[in-house]
Each structure stands twice: as structure tokens, then as C-alpha cells.
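input
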Amino acid sequence: MKKSIDDFGDCVISSTNKIDMIVKLINNISRINLHLHTRASDGALTPVELLQQAKRIGLDLISITDHDTMAAYKMIPEDNEPLRILPGIEVSSLHKGHDIHILAYGCDFENTALKELTDMYLAGRRERAVKMIELLKDLGISIDLSDVVAMAGAQELIARPHIAQVLAQKGFVRNKNEAFDRYIGNFKPAYVPKPERSVPEILSVIHSAGGFAIIAHPGKLADPAYLEEFIDMGIDGLEAWHPDHYQYQVDEFIEIAQKKGLYVTAGSDFHGENENTQLFDMVPASQFILDSVRKLYGEYLCRKS
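output
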């Protein structure tokens, strides 16, 4: 039996029992947050701590979307009921000289192309950190790579916030924001770009791994016109609700999604810091966003089954 596009996209389900199971799993989803980070990349909580918090506040569906790594999913138990988890990763890409983040949901984490991509980012981020530390030294600021690696944790996926934390701990800046503003933010004196692939390349990897490619926080794009280009490239959806989006932007993204037949999602981009943009709770998703997320999750379950 094949479900209609209004249910599970083009996914074919042969068992009525499986259909009933998927419908049951998606129908009672109302509290969601599909953009969360852990210590596997640059978040403050371990994956287990994040799951515990998600259960404590009563979320129905979450996604851990660490930067360029799926490592968090090796650290969590398989059974997390009643919490449901949509596997995710926030993948870095580059378009016309600007960083573009793509949320990849529902990928097969054993896919060769995806593993090669994340391995490349892991090595590239370390090389980048070495170069940034050298530039900081030229500015009279001496920190050790070992301290940055320790801040990054067991996975050793180094992100700029790890360098910023060390700078703050050593007293070179008052806080992480000052580290970015003065030294390691985009095009600052100690900035080094991380290795990145183009948007079409990233979309190809995500789709080859059976995943959905969602543009993260599209309201922060350097040029809003990029969105139409990404749609033509074959993205699957937009992160409509994000703490940095104004309501008029959320409405615009929903309208675009309706016209183009795209999914819309919502997430708080939680990292675990005491900032307004790092909320960890149910995101205020409209009924349209909830319905879209349910379809996306249903499609993922269908493909998985």
C-alpha cells in the first residue's frame, strides 16, 4: 500500500500494521525542538544530559543536530520513550563566500559519503584551530592546542566557541562574545575559514544518505535571494521558526514552503548558554509547522521501516 503525499510522501509501506504504528507515533506530537547541540560539538550538555532535560520538560520530538558530527547518537540509548528522536546533523557548507548551515534529518549514519564528509570536517577543524592559535600568538595571545582540545571533549571536534572559551578562561577576554568580536569572528584578525563544501555537494551527500535537507535559520542568510537558489538546487525544507527570526519572516517562510511544497521545521539552536537565542524548551510552532514536522517524521519512519 502506498500512502499519499499528504501522509508520508513517496514512501511505500506494505504493512497496514506499520502504517498504524507510524500514525500513532506522529499524531500526538505537539511539543518539539529540532535544533539542539551537545558537547559532541559545541554545546554545554552531554547527549545523555540533553535527553534527560528533554524528557523532564515534556518534549515529544527532538533532534540533536551537532555541527558536522553524528557522534552524539553513539552516546545515547536506543530506547528513549516516550521521547521520540529524529536523527540529525547540522552540516556546514559554502555559497558565494558565505557560510550556509543545512540541517540533515533522517540520514543513514553508516552512509559512506556522509562518513567521509564528517571525517573531512573533523580533520579540517583541527587544522583550522592550529592556524587560528598561530594567528593569536602573532597578536601576543598564547594558548595551547591541548587546552582547546580538552574543551572540545572526547570527540575532539573543535569549533570556534571552544577557542573562545579558552581565551575567556585565560583572561584574554571577558567572555566568548568578546573573543569573537575582537579576534576570531568572521574576518577578524585571528579568523580562519573552516573547510567547506558547496551547497549542491552537501545536498547530494544528504540525499544519497536518505536524508532531508533543511536550510537552517534562513532569516540569517547574507542575501535573502539565496533561498530561491537553494530551492532550485533541491532542498527539502526550511527552518521556519528560529529564535533569531521575526514573526514576519516566519510567516514568509511558511508561505514559501506552501508554494514550493517544502517542509518547515522549528528549533531553538540550543547550545546550553545563558543567552536568549539558546532556549531549550518547546518552540512556539504554529499548527502548520507542527503538521509539517509530523509529516517529515512520518516520512522518516516510513523510509526507516
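quick obs: The mean pLDDT is 90.
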